[in-house]
Amino acid sequence: MIKKIVFNIAIVFLVVFVLDFAIGRTLQHFYFKEKSGACFQITYSMETTKADILVFGASTARHHYVPEVFEGTLEGTFYNTGQNALGIFFQLAMLESVLKRYTPRVIILDAEDSFEKEKSSYERLSCLLPYYREHKEIRKIVELRSPFERVKMISKIYPFNSHVLTVLGMNLNIIKGDELYNKGYVPLDGQWENKIYPTDTYAAYMVDPNKVIAFKEFIVRAKKSGASIFVVYPPILQELNIRQEIEIRREICLNEKVPFWDFSSNVLFYNNKGLFVDMVHLNHDGAMLFSKLIAAKIKDAINKRMP
Amino acid sequence: MERAEVLSKLTVIFRRLFSNDSLALTNELTAKDVGGWDSLSHMLLITEIESAFSIKFKLKDLNKMKNVGDMIDIIIAKL
Amino acid sequence: MNFTSFNFLIFFPLLVILYYATPAKYRYITLLIASYFFYINIKPVFALITAGVTLSTYLFTSLMGRTNTGPWKKRFMVINIILILLPLFFFKYFNNINAGIFALLELFHLKWPLPKIKLFLPIGISFYTFMAIGYTVDVYNEEIESEKNIGILALFVSFFPSILSGPIERAKNMLPQFKAQINLDYNMVSQGLKFMLWGYFMKLVVADRLGIYVDAIYGNIYQHNGTSLLFASFLYPFQEYADFGGYSLIAIGTARILGINVMQNFNRPFLATSMSEFWRRWHISLISWLTDYVYTPLSFSFRKYKVWGIVIALMITFFISGIWHGAALTFVVWGLMQGLFLSIEALTNKEKSIFEKKHNLSKKSWYISIGVCFTFLLFAASEVFARTTNINDAFTVYRRIFTVSGTLFIGRLSILIYGIFGLSILLLKDLRDEFAPSWFLLFENKHKFVRVIAYSSIIILILLIGVFDGGQFIYYQF
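YS: structure for the whole thing
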């Protein structure tokens, strides 16, 4: 009887294995054929771009750095690898896969995301699963998700979990990535009309040591590669609970001798509703102003370094 | 009182309570077999039986009533 | 560790091998150790409470067993029930009772600030406490003899398949099974695996997927319009069914593989044509427990009030059901609503049957459909209270449904598509099981080929669109 049970389970496993392999491979093939959208942009960042100036970050990265400004002032090509709601782990992964291929001239880290200990920061790394197999350099980051990721990757479908419709839709041209492929920059429209609510600026929370380590590693790796790295904390409309965040970053950058530019209380932006669409995101006008400032500062810093 | 008499008296009660003139009681009959006989109507049935036979049940008796046959046994024991 | 964590998929097969490798006489010990291991893996301290409940119950039921007559038998029962309810009350209701007392004292201008303790509710305490109480009462009523083997009793209280979220089992059903010689049975294992597979499908593909959407709406009720709130409220009962029902099915399947029969907990609840029928199909183990240990004694005591006695008993029973679910006022309202629905049905039952008989309605499909829809509506309406965390929010949801119009919020469309797709499969299966149980057999098909393809397809479906973690970000743009 035990034989019968084991045998039957084995048959099912075999059939599942075959189906999983076939379907998974198909999904993989069509996933990498996507020509627009967030996944395509991640692929582009990791495998294709050879831009001189790279921006890393989350949603503020996507909306604050205008390509034309940087390309004009710094005379080089520009690409923005930032993706919404993805934090330092993702940014480190992007850096690793970029540095494996080439060394950019300028690296800008928009260090806005929080160091708070949150499950979602790990769960959202699922967007990197399709790249796990080919990109050894990001494996240790993906494995932060759980000690069992390697085992789960035995399934070829697993990395593409929940992607079926997207992959199908993109390939059948039913859906298209909603932003134009403009080097990763998405301009925002409008202004913040609502009241500004005072927030508790000193509420303590638990810091995730993994994130702090990842942040430090990002800076060290970027500096070691020979690129000029700049860490920026973007402008905000009004004081939020970020004192702790900024202090941690400032200290690490100081130790590693990397420029840290804190724009969170910059007079040009602070309280200036006309430049923001919400408490943390600049609109296109704000982005233009910000980009010009940053680009100028970078040019200045680079010039100072030249003997 | 004999079983047959108890049975016929019960039949009258059941038929009235569950609006079913053709209901026939057997020893094996349970709530599942009778439409409308559920935990909501069970207590109504119990009260009717108590007044019809002038007896008073104990909660323990209820747990022992698995079917109509048990019911008759317990009623007879209380008479 | 819980059923949907990856380490369970490692723990369970190992346990099964170890279990059947143990000589039959000692299998319950393996199971007992495994249950405590499982439980300790959640939070070690909780296991102490489980052990405490076991010890107390063992002690007092043995004492009850020795005093067959006299007032002490009842006293021992009452003492044990109070003792084992204490941890439950403390963990679940302390903060609420504390706040309530505090508010009361404030009325009298007395300030007595007791510290608000941050308490983690021991997982499963609501379930095993009820199981232990049931056993104690059963011993008192002489339905079962007090168990001499403390290991067997400990296993009953800590049985890991049902400790997390039920089904709430009875000693009469479980103890004999634990003591008996359990042999490896092919059909049990096969059936168990099928239950587990379907349970995982329900939980991962349907419940957790719909949950992403429902959470997005209910997490922001002041930002979403009435249309979205209505749609989310419509989906929520299905999510609950797939979640709770799926989890129960995994528990039942797990137990079955171990050779233990555990009672069914859900029986296609949305095919009920009345709330009374609904409550015979939804969370069956809880209702059954409440009926036997609360409702029946109560309605028996109040039987001289005829139908009104039943109404009072119903209201009290469902009040308890409400607070059992949670220490919030919303759950109380939810419970009372169920009591209200059932009371109205009890009061109008006679007229309803006469009406149905007169027009020969009970077999007509349109009449059944109306019953099904109406019952679903009533339950969905009450679930708004279960889903929100305070009364204000619940009423806000209702208010906005009727006053704030707008287009339906979609977010990431694929979430809804996957969710509704999975839900359709689930509902179609339930319909098939209810009305045409021998058609379209897949898991039960007589051809092995069909069965294998069916199992494999469900597994593949779980891999493709099951929700494995919170990485499914609804606002994530393409």
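YS: worth flagging: Chain C has a mean pLDDT of 89.
IM: good catch. Also Chain C touches chain A at residues 6-7, 20, 184, 186, 189-190, 193, 413-414, 417-418, 452-453, 455-457, 459-460, 463-473, 475-478 (CB under 8 Å).
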